[in-house]
Design brief:
Layout (H helix, E strand, L loop, with lengths): L42 E2 L30 E5 L2 E5 L7 E4 L3 E4 L5 E10 L2 E10 L6 E2 L9 E5 L5 E7 L14 E8 L6 E8 L5 E4 L5 E5 L11 E5 L5 E5 L4 E7 L5 E8 L2 E8 L6 E2 L5 E8 L5 E8 L5 E7 L5 E8 L8 E3 L5 E5 L5 E5 L6 E2 L10 E2 L2
């Protein structure tokens, strides 16, 4: 089974992985009160609990399909047979790995992979790095367990964050599995694995995402039982200190921090339907930019923070539209419809210059939309792609 990369990316990945304050069609919403660390429903892990892991990597297999190419701005995509690279015009498509892509390194030189494998009878996930300029995949020698998931490299590529079941799950399915997760972090080479937070509820799917400065991790946590509510919490990596950003009475499905880290965009659900909000990074000044007749699914900041790309659908579970909102205080424009929003992987990815957004067509394949234009241009040869990671 392929692991689910989160693109709550503040990519990277969410989510969750936001939405807010900008459109003529926006309606004012209540501001979520910022809370003290003690109001978090999970506990920070004790400082100094780092446990170094083995540093000897397993011998990687050769990857003859990877060819030297220093060009930037390519697409990394997932198809059923592995990870592929293709130019935005559809040329030069080639398979680079049998693994499952999680995303690019910050400088676009390396592909991060997280692939399910079987070890000692248990299904675990192997992490690998692959240089885009050729060479063999390098195994990240982090010690993982059955049930570890949602692997996300920090924007500076120095660390890897992921969730681990608080109660270790056996290989066989459990009738009533424990749904609490611990937030884990390890150095990018697999060493110094430690807990940042314990007891994160996972009843409706906890989600994590790094802040752009790589200093903190956002966690969208939801209670185990209906109505699956819980706060958005920011946890500092160095000292495990949590700060509540959004109210514990809310239910959230995606979140992203602006490039300058002054604001957060998120999707808050109300009556089962999501609405994009935007707020100051401490949770104050919340503004609802959703459409009461629609349902928002994901939000992503442009590289310069001047635009928010929103996947907005109808309330009948149909295809999504790409809606562009200017920031701050600008109007919203519906650019194109019939986009997919369900399934694994990122559903929106910005070009390095912020001029275009890539998405997945509801009928299949990657499409590219100009941020200030309209209409979707398909990328040839990508009809089976389920993810679109634009190389930085």
């Amino acid at each position: 089974m392929r692991p689910v990369p989160r693109a709550l990316a503040f990519p990277v990945a969410l989510c969750v992985a936001l939405s807010l304050a900008l459109g003529a069609c926006a309606s004012a919403g209540p501001a979520p009160a910022a809370a003290s660390p003690s109001s978090s429903t999970f506990a920070p892990a004790s400082a100094g609990s780092a446990t170094p892991t083995a540093t000897t990597a397993a011998t990687p297999s050769a990857n003859p399909s990877a060819t030297r190419n220093s060009a930037r701005g390519q697409f990394l995509l997932y198809e059923s047979s592995g990870a592929w690279i293709v130019e935005p015009d559809g040329t030069g498509k080639r398979k680079v790995s049998a693994g499952s892509p999680v995303g690019w390194s910050d400088d676009g030189s390396t592909i991060h992979l997280a692939t399910d494998s079987t070890k000692s009878g248990c299904q675990v996930t192997e992490l690998d790095d692959l240089s885009i300029d050729g060479g063999a995949e390098k195994v990240v020698p982090v010690s993982l367990k059955h049930g570890d998931w949602d692997f996300a490299w920090s924007p500076d590529d120095a660390r890897i964050a992921f969730f681990r079941p608080t109660v270790e799950r056996p290989c066989s399915p459990q009738a009533n599995p424990d749904s609490r997760m611990d937030l884990m972090v390890a150095d990018a080479d697999g060493t110094h694995q430690r807990k940042l937070a314990i007891g994160v509820p996972d009843g409706a799917g906890a989600t994590l995402a790094w802040t752009p400065d790589s200093r903190s991790i956002l966690v969208i946590q939801q209670d185990d039982d209906r109505p699956w509510k819980g706060p958005i919490v920011s946890i500092e990596v160095q000292n495990s200190s949590p700060t509540q950003i959004a109210a514990a009475s809310g239910s959230y499905v995606d979140a992203a921090v602006s490039p300058d880290e002054s604001h957060i965009a998120y999707v808050a659900t109300d009556g089962g339907f999501g609405a994009m909000h935007v707020a100051n990074i401490d949770g104050s000044g919340d503004r609802n930019l959703g459409d009461s007749a629609s349902a928002d699914h994901f939000v992503s900041w442009s590289p310069d923070g001047s635009l928010l790309a929103i996947l907005r659908g109808d309330r009948n579970d149909g295809p999504a539209h790409l809606v562009m909102a200017s920031f701050p205080g600008g109007s919203q424009r519906d650019l194109v419809g019939a986009l997919a929003w369900k399934g694994a992987g990122p559903k929106m990815s910005w070009s390095p210059d912020g001029a275009r957004v890539a998405g997945i067509a509801n009928a299949g394949g990657i499409v590219v939309v100009a941020a200030y234009g309209s209409g979707a241009v398909p990328v040839p040869g990508t009809t089976s792609a389920t993810d679109a990671f634009w190389q930085p």
